[in-house]
Every structure is written in structure tokens, then in C-alpha cells.
Amino acid sequence: MSFVITIGRQYGSGGRYIAQELAKKLKINFYDNELLTKAAEKTGLSVDYIKANEEKKDSLFAFMGLNDVDNTLTAVQKVSNTQFAIIRNLASKESCVIVGRCANYVLKDYKNVLNVFIHAPMEDRIHRAVTYYGLDPKKAKDSIKKMDKRRAGYHNYFTEEKWGDATNYDICLNSSIGINECVDIIIAAAKNKFHLNLED
Questions:
Q1: How far is residue 155's CA from residue 169's CA, in Å, rounded to a whole number?
Q2: How many angstroms separate the CA atoms of 129 and 123, rounded?
């Protein structure tokens, strides 16, 4: 049986790295920016165009729902709906780890999904953002808040859920307990939920 692990994450929490390590240890595919390429291939739009219009909400319209792509939709809606369709297609065909992009909501009716949200204290996130992402120490906190606001706005705009609300996920983890520890906990949960028999 194929299975999917979705990873929502606060900026600077290490969620993307945790997702990568999960995919590596479980020997399954990892999708984040790769979804941009897939969306570009499917729509004929450039990767740069998709990158400019993904994981953000429109400022002009209050659009709710995950409908089919059509000519009445804005660029943001077209890009998002294309990625949502790709996420559903992946979930029906293969085991994988998917980062962000409302994947937990898009796959809410799928039985083979484990939804995870990664968070961390602000001081830890600042340290990671400065150390690994190259953010200016003086501006890191504001940049982190801005990115979180963008992610929350996108998620709340395209779903009926509140971003980061624990009730929308199977597991919420504070990455300050350790990146490897988070990976181990998620793998243990996946083994239990999907009845996996994996070699250590």
C-alpha cells in the first residue's frame, strides 16, 4: 500500500529538512520545489511564473475551495489548483513526503495519509534562519513572521482550516526536541498507522 506524509511547517523550524530526512530513511520520493517543475510541465507555464504565484493568496478576490482550473481563475488560483491536482495524483500512485501547499487539506479524504506540523520557539527559528538560510540577524525575526503570515494566509485562503491548528494534523512536533528525534517519531507513527514492516 502506498502512503503519503504531509509536512506543514513554520518558517525556520526545520520542517523541510525533516521531510527530506524522512523521505531518505523511508526510501520514498520527496516533493517540495519539485512540484513547481511538475506544475510547469502540466500547464506549459514557466517555473519562474509558477514560483512567483505559488503559496500565496490573491489580494483582489475572496476565493474559497479547490475547484478545477479554468479561464476565470487568477494566476495564483491556476497555479495552486494545478499543484493540488498533482498532489492528488501523487497520493493515488506512490508513497512520498509532500511539504506545504495545503497537502493535508487537499488529501483530507484519503485514508493513506499522515499529516504532520512542525513548529519551534522563535529563538530556535532565528538561529536556523541565520545559520542555514543566510538571513540578516537583525531582520530575521521580521522575515520569519512575514513568511509565517504568508503561509497562513495561503492555507486559510484555499482551505476551510486554520494553518497550524493542531486539530488539523495527526502529529504536531516542536523541532527543538531534535531534528532526528522528530524524524524517528514520525517514522514510528507511520509504521503504526500504515502497518509498515520497515527495516531499521
A1: 13
A2: 10
List the CATH code of the domain at 4-15+32-194.
Answer: 3.40.50.300
pTM of the model: 0.86
What distance in Å separates the CA atoms of residue 83 and residue 20, rounded to the nearest whole number? 19
Distance CA 105, CA 200 (A): 31
* CB atoms closer than 10 angstroms to residue 6: 28
Q: Is 34 exposed, middle or buried (0-12, 13-18, 19+ CB in 10 A)?
A: middle
Q: How far apart are the first and last CA of the chain?
A: 19
Q: Find, among 104, 90, 107, 103, the residue nearest to 28 by Cα.
A: 90
Kindly report the number of other CB atoms within 10 A of residue 161's CB atom. 16
pLDDT digits (tens, 9 = 90+) for 9-19: 999 999 999 99
Domain extents in the chain = 4-15+32-194
Sign of the four-CA dihedral 154, 8, 46, 158: negative
Instruction: Dump pLDDT digits (tens) for 36-89.
Output: 788 778 777 777 877 776 655 554 343 444 444 445 667 778 788 888 999 999
Residue 179 CB partners (closer than 8 Å, separation 6+)? 14, 17, 18, 21
